[in-house]
Specification:
The chain has 247 residues and is of the alpha+beta class. The chain is built from eight helices and seven strands.
Length: 247
């Protein structure tokens, strides 16, 4: 992928454990473009950045820089990094599916997929480097979608603990934020500052998306973990919505 000079650089928050690089690396880099086929990585050309928290550990929050491949209209595959520089660490994966595909999943499986509408409507999720009209078109397609995300390396925790210098422990299922005030304020501000994001401006520009928003499953999944968080218009839990309609 060719580096876009308009995208702010965001370095990894940790330096991995280990020493230097071996001599064969220079030889590999010199010949890789000729000798090796990188076909599986060639179409990972969609870049999206946002914030994640662990489904079972709300204090585990960090940035996630997604490099995605659109498989078809209903499925994207993403590899996740803790920054967007050459030295960024690979921290996990995310699969993104449409509302239509989500509806085909069994109930038990649906519990592993987080909703995306708050991330979009709040202005928190961004596609750095895209012209505004292109970003808007892309995010409009993501409305009402769901993601299944596993982090394998926690390099930037924002829960008072330093990031790990190696991928330790089992993978963690991650979740989306779904209300104002859920994301750690220092994390949110750092992300906006370094990526040159104005969340308020993004939110105002995307207000029209509210009319496209459907109630989504998982909006209330972590609500009890963030007392005092404030709901955003258009972001409604499908189960709560059905309960209101039925009662």
């Amino acid at each position: 992928m060719i580096r876009n000079p308009t995208v702010p650089r965001r370095a990894s928050p940790v330096r991995p454990a280990g020493e230097g690089r071996s001599a064969w690396r220079a030889v590999l880099e010199a010949g890789a473009s000729v000798l090796q086929d990188r076909a599986p990585l060639g179409d990972f050309d969609i870049y999206v950045a946002g914030l994640h928290c662990a489904r079972d550990d709300p204090g585990m929050q960090m940035e996630a820089h997604h490099y995605c491949r659109q498989v078809n209209q209903d499925l994207l595959q993403c590899v996740l990094f803790d920054g967007n520089t050459r030295d960024a660490n690979l921290i996990g994966i995310e699969y993104i599916i449409s509302e239509r595909l989500f509806a085909t999943l069994p109930g038990e499986e649906k519990a592993s997929w987080h909703p995306h509408n708050y991330e979009i409507l709040s202005g928190q999720l961004v596609a750095p480097g895209l012209p505004e009209v292109a970003e808007r078109a892309f995010l409009e397609e993501l409305m009402n979608s769901y993601g299944k995300t596993w982090h394998t390396w926690h390099t930037g925790r924002h829960d008072g603990e330093p990031g790990d210098r190696l991928p330790l422990g089992p993978p963690m299922l991650m979740w989306s934020f779904n209300r104002d005030g859920e994301a750690d304020e220092a994390l949110r501000q750092s992300f906006q500052e370094h990526m040159k994001i104005d969340e308020g401006e993004n939110r105002a520009r995307r207000e029209g998306f509210t009319d496209l928003a459907h109630p989504q499953h998982g909006v209330d999944a972590m609500a009890s973990c963030f007392p005092g968080a404030r709901p955003l218009r258009g972001v409604v839990d499908a189960d709560r919505d059905e309960g209101l309609d039925g009662g």
